[in-house]
Amino acid sequence: MPRNLSGRSFLKLLDFTPEEIKYLLDLAKDFKSMKRAGVPHKYLTGKNIVLLFEKTSTRTRCAFEVAGNDLGMGVTYLAPGSSQMGKKESLEDTARVLGRMYDGIEYRGFDQQVVEDLAKHSGVPVWNGLTTQFHPTQMLADVLTIEENFGRYKGLKMVFMGDARNNVANSLMVVSAKLGINFVACGPKENMPDEELVATCRAIAKENGCTITLTDDVEQGVKDADVIYTDIWVSMGEAPDLWEKRIKLLSPYQVNEAAMAKAKPDAIFMHCLPSFHDLETTIGREIYEKFGLKEMEVADVVFRGKQSRVFDEAENRMHTIKAVMYATLK
Question: Which of the two residues, 1 and 66, has the higher pLDDT score?
Fold first, then answer.
């Protein structure tokens, strides 16, 4: 049954019911079918959106731009440093100005409070393209990818390996609790999600017949997993001098052949990207020169292997973001 999300902002999945999330996923499936069949769907012609970036991006920017153009909208991109927000102009004033000119605002940056304040003051739907705390558009793409592979997501076991206090792990825990997926955070005890968020998610999970588990035991964590997921060990905006500490701390949680072998035979590997799985990046080469590591959070053989779904996942960002914009602007 269609849900009316018109005029809503998309800031974090805690704000949405399981039924509303499922509605967005169903919309995304429809848009993906239309895109692949070459069926035009310029349903939002005449509307304009602005992409406000304080952190650079490949997938988020491209997904929003292509999705916006496919829907018939005008798209303005404000690169990091090209806006006066927070420098010569307050966040509130910026929000009020952009809300007068645009029908929707995407924000990708740092503190969650910034995107919340943009929504509060702009008067138009605001979409969270990533903050330090949450990454909700990524989650829709992830769940769509899982459903495409297994025909379902409820009751599956998804394991996040590594730094489980980052925005991706937080959001995976939230979406799992909402949709009945058994979520496992597998990493060092000191890198577990915030206790308050864990308690909130466990209460939601109980309502939806699933579990939230925290463990530092790799064997226990990945045993019989349907999905193994990881992210880079030092996130954008964090200090580069954290690499040495994180490598020592997180190396036991690398997703490699041994870890995948403990999962179910048909398990899949997922990653939000970018990934340091080889020496084909500047940072990858720097880490190799300093620490002798050729691959970090995931072994190259897993990243490129038959169980990897990372590029399906990346494509699905576009389809799910299109669903979010259409649902909130229609």
Answer: 66
Q: Which residue has the tokens 């269609």?
A: 2
| 138 assigned to active site | yes
279's CB contacts (< 8 A; 6+ apart) are 285, 288, 294
Instruction: Give φ, ψ of 108 to 5 degrees.
Output: -130, 115
| Per-residue model confidence as pLDDT tens digits over 175-219 | 999 999 999 999 999 999 999 999 999 999 999 999 999 999 999
Residue 28 makes CB contacts below 8 A (sequence gap 6+) with 140, 144, 316, 319, 320, 322, 323
Q: Catalytic residue among 138, 163, 186, 277, which?
A: 138
Amino acid residing at 113: Q
Q: How far apart are CA 310 and CA 300, in angstroms?
A: 12
Which residue do the tokens 């970018």 mark?
Answer: 274
Task: State yes or no: is 272 an active-site residue.
Answer: yes
Catalytic residue among 8, 61, 108, 271: 108
| Residue 304: active-site member | no
Question: Helix or strand or coil: residue 61?
Answer: helix
Q: Is 36 a catalytic residue?
A: no
In SS3 terms, 137-182 reads as HHHHHHHHHHHHHHCCCCCCEEEEECCCCCHHHHHHHHHHHHHCCE
Coil, helix or strand at residue 101: helix
Model confidence at 21: pLDDT above 70: yes
